[in-house]
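A.,

Following up on our hallway conversation. Structure tokens first:
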């Protein structure tokens, strides 16, 4: 999750282009499902939908570089895997189907719990970073107080810019 904070932001043009590519890929994959029938078609459709949702979440993360968006990628992946797994269970009957659905649900619940834990970690790290930033700004501000005139103004402006205050 730490890596999320270092994700490079992409330009609006690159984002729009990538989004169009994803939409085109989804349509192509979705159309390929039309040649199938029955549950195989349903599984194919859910797989295509899931790939698109995960890819869109990744693209949003690339756009923002925000760690919270990285958590959304994990959530989208979890949801997509669950939907496909449920569809695959439709090929079975009776107890085998019940077991399959229960396993899919259990796997989904575990993945959601992991995503929630990662979300808590991200929030804690963000809070800690914000607290450290405020503390660093206070120290810099104190250093500037020892100065006067233009030097103090310049120092304070630099501190505000550096620490986003």
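Then the amino acids I'd put at each of the 165 positions:
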């Amino acid at each position: 999750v730490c890596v999320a904070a270092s994700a490079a932001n992409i330009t609006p043009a690159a984002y729009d282009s990538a989004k169009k590519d994803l939409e085109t890929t989804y349509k192509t994959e979705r159309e390929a499902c039309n040649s199938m029938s029955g549950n195989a078609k349903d599984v194919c459709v859910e797989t295509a939908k899931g790939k698109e949702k995960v890819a869109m979440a990744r693209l949003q993360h690339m756009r923002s570089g925000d760690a919270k968006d990285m958590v959304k990628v994990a959530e989208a992946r979890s949801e997509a895997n669950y939907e496909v797994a449920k569809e695959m269970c439709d090929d079975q009957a009776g107890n085998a189907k019940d077991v399959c659905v229960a396993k899919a649900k259990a796997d989904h619940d575990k993945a959601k719990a992991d995503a929630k834990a990662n979300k808590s970690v991200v929030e804690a790290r963000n809070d800690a970073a914000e607290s450290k930033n405020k503390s660093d700004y206070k120290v810099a501000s104190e250093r500037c107080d020892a100065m006067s005139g233009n030097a103090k103004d310049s120092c304070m402006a630099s501190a505000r810019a550096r620490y986003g205050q």
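The chain has a mean pLDDT of 88. Curious whether your intuition agrees with the design.

B.
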